[in-house]
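Quick one: structure tokens for this chain, please?
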Amino acid sequence: MSRPRPITPERIHEFDCIVDARSPAEYALDHLPGAINCPVLDDDERRIVGTLYKQQGTFEAKRVGGAMVAAQLARHLRETFADKPKSWRPLVYCWRGGMRSGTMVQWLRLVGWDAQQLHGGYKAFRAHVMAQIDTLAPQLKLQVVCGPTGSAKTALLQALRAEGAQVLDLEALARHKGSILGRWPGQEQPSQKAFETALAQALQGFDLARPVFVEAESRKIGRLMLPDAVLDALRGGDCIAIEAPLHARLAYLLQDYAYLGHDGEELATLLGQLNANTGLHARETVARWQAWARAGQLAPLFEALMTEHYDPLYARSQRSNYLRLAEARPLVMSRLEAQDLALAARQLVA
């Protein structure tokens, strides 16, 4: 068994397993890709120990916390680690590479496993993630798919991926479609940190010599923010402009957003964010849209939203934000059905 040595985030792929020794709440916020959560203190225990530290000092916190840690480690040895062979090599981390992961590493090494500790813990990994984004994003040969709402940009990305193209699907990473109505049904967005971890992992998987297709996005996707390096790369990338008639876009939206018709009151509430208080639309206009939402009349609602809200917004924002939009390669689509998008993807890849 090798001696303990400093392990940096660049070397995490060398280990059989990555063990997150932090509390479940910390793990849920973000964690190293593929890590399993084996807390040495659960959320309640961490709160208790923190309170003792503040109120009674280090000794009492360690005395009580030590017993909790011992019990948790014993449970992991009985359960999670029970089937691991002698040759198993885990990498353990906590917040800063301190006592929590250090204690677990000591126990695992006493058993006989070649356990190692991530130097600097999750905090060092976070710095590595942001450095990777800042380094890799400017090197991407981006092909930015542009087009007004309903142009099937995301569906085109999926078709491009099916044709073997490299695709950066930011909305999939953010679990949000980007617009005010873009929340994925039944799913919450990840934390900002988890989004950035997934983004860095995606960037690391690209061949920088080949083009990467991506959808034009604003700075925010739902409540998540694009890192500056990614946003700058998007705005300076080569553009592909989808040109599709209104009826084709409406047909696509009615299919892609059909779930919004399941709860008319919730949809009306979302539309209320566009009222006169925001300065975007008159109260009478929004009230008309809300009436259609409550009645489940998505066709007139979506058509009005396109012509009165999204298309003017697109015209104002895209041409000022995307430097090469004026010289974009046009992609003229009379329909936006799956077979039409597959054909367009084959042409773009060729």
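The radius of gyration is 25 Å.
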